[in-house]
Amino acid sequence: MRKTFLHRTLILIPQLAALSLLVFLIGYAIPGDALTGMVGPDTPPARAAQLREMYGLDDPWYVQYARWAGNALRADFGRSISYRMPVADIVGRRAYNTLFLQVLTLVLLYAVAVPLGLVAGRFHGRAPEKAVNLYTCFMLAMPTVVPALAVVLVAGFWLDIVPVRGSVDIGLGRGTAVYFASRLHHSIAPAVTGALLGSVYVVQYLRSEIADIRGMAFVTAARAKGIPEGALYTRHIFRGALLPIASSLGSMVVMLLGGSVFIESIFSYPGMGTLFLESIQQRDFSVLTALVVLYGVLLVLGSFLSDIALSVVDPRIRIK
After folding, report:
1. Among the listed residues 287, 289, 295, 291, the one whose alpha carbon sits nearest the alpha carbon of residue 83
2. Is the pTM of this model over 0.70?
3. Cα–Cα distance between 136 and 121 in angstroms, integer?
4. Is residue 248 within 8 Å of residue 265, measured between CB atoms?
5. Are 283 and 36 in contact (CB under 8 A)?
6. What is the pLDDT of residue 317?
7. Cα separations (Å) of 152 from 98, 104, 105, 184, 259?
8. CA separation for the pair 190, 188 (Å, rounded)
9. Which of 314, 241, 304, 267 is nearest to 1 (CA)?
């Protein structure tokens, strides 16, 4: 396991370097810079030029990138021009919010998907499977914004049971039980939205795998021994069908991180997704590049987590 982690880390380094360079070049090619929206028409040109020189924005792109890369190797991602504070502090706070939301989303996702997949696989061709198929087809056909707005309308306005804005109530002390409960309460609506959207794929994986396994010889032998149908599915068939669920864990992490940009924007949730959009709008490329690098690290870690889950489900699998 240690050798695998080292191998993945060594592969990650050139990938992140290429990714950060690509994002930096795209940002450099966009007209304007981080000071474009911060200097007004009344700002003297000499003052604007002084600010650009102060922040190094008039240097060639390769000089700016080399300076950023050298500082990043020392865990210094620079200072945000729009927020006027270190980039690491901004991204760190938003990353905590996003990771908290994504963990809750994953828990809800599998809590919804696994029972539905079992029902669809067990009752093949009957009404329960048709109901699950209707749910999956409906969710696949919907853009991300539609289920999110439905959750806002139903849970936030009609029933008024959960907040649909922000991440925590104002004025609560960090580290207290009340603070954690408020954060959890604010995360329910966006987490439910992400779970509904992501559960569709896990349901399909599980249903198709159960359909393949229930015709195997060991299932026929277990049924001939008189094992109850419920125990047959939960103890034997489901255990064999866990492999696609474990293998999809990494893709679920990737999908949820990508979808967080839209979900966090709809629910005004202060995470990495909303920070990503804000940094694009404000041309804050120091924040944007740091976010892209962090997203790359999280995606690779998600893939590694999927490999670990596979080896736990089936010890015969050895990751390399």
Report:
1. 287
2. yes
3. 14
4. no
5. yes
6. 56
7. 19, 18, 16, 16, 17
8. 6
9. 304
Start-to-end C-alpha separation, the chain = 8
Q: Which of 184-188, 218-222, 252-256, 299-303 has the highest mean pLDDT?
A: 184-188
> Which residues partner with 79 through β-bridges?
86
Residue with tokens 């945000």: 80
128: closest CA among 110, 140, 109, 115?
Answer: 115
Which one-letter amino acid corresponds to residue 73? L
What are the pLDDT digits (tens) for 122-141? 787 788 888 988 988 888 88
In angstroms, the CA 237 to CA 212 distance is 10
Cα distances (Å, whole numbers) of residue 3 to 6, 11, 26, 189, 318: 5, 12, 35, 40, 12
How many CB atoms are located within 10 Å of the residue 37 CB?
14
Q: Write out pLDDT tens, residues 10-23.
A: 777 787 788 778 87
Residues forming beta bridges with residue 80, ordered by sequence position: 85
Neighbouring-strand partners of residue 85: 80
What is the distance between the alpha carbons of residues 295 and 301, in angstroms, rounded to a whole number?
10
Helical H segments across the chain, by residue range: 2-29, 45-54, 61-73, 87-122, 127-141, 145-151, 177-213, 217-224, 229-231, 238-240, 242-247, 249-266, 272-281, 285-313
Q: Is the pLDDT of residue 243 over 60?
A: yes
Q: Helix, strand or coil for residue 209? A: helix
Give the residue with greater pLDDT, 107 vs 249: 107
- 246, amino acid identity: A
Query: What's the token pair of residue 267?
Result: 């629910």
Pair of tokens at residue 31: 């007209």
How many Cα atoms sit within 13 Å of 146 on the Cβ side?
Answer: 7
